[in-house]
Amino acid sequence: MRKGLTILGALFIIIIVFSETLLPWLARETLQTRMNERLSTSDVQVSADSQPGILLMLGEVQQLHAVAHQAKVGQVYFREISLSGEHVRLNIRELWQAGKVALQSAEKLELKGVVDEENLQEVLSRKLDKVENVQVTIDPTGVLVTADAKIFGRVADIELEGNVIADNGSLYFQMTRLAFKNSRIGTAKLSEMFGNIQLAPPGRLPLGMQISDVQQTQGAIVITAVRDNVE
Known about the structure:
With 231 residues, this protein is an alpha+beta fold. 27% of the residues lie in helices and 49% in strands. The model is unreliable at 7-22 (pLDDT under 50).
């Protein structure tokens, strides 16, 4: 009898340890892996906690914090993305079977992203045709882009001024002024070659979040995103 109770007690302890340590660890590692894949980076740190820990295996996350560096969203890399949430419920079937981090509900969920001058310079260098030596300066009043461009065989010093904006879920570099030097080609012709540049289309942020605010600061763009209808 005593031996049987000892065995049952040991099994009970094993189950408790398994449910409170190994299973939550597995849930966190799976969530971190899926976030790495979603943001095309290997630098995501996820903290997901619930009490009791077995709730994580059921997709119930009472406190969620995640930070990613050099994370790709659409065409642009973010220097840093941070995600915080409270009482988040994930679609556990999608997480385990389809490898997707899908949200069912949340009391609070907010994402902050930072695009710095180097990040914006990289994407504009790729998106602007026949342009070299791109330099980007960001301050609270806007974005200044200088570059060398070949226009009908001539090299012109290009200046673009604009802002990074959100429109219908997309992230754009919106041009407000075009100017150049060392060329007789008018601004009208230049405007035919350049236009607003989409940095990220809708639906590229994790957990179906949508951009709600874009702020230009000294040296960086700060983007805030929320998830509508999370209740």
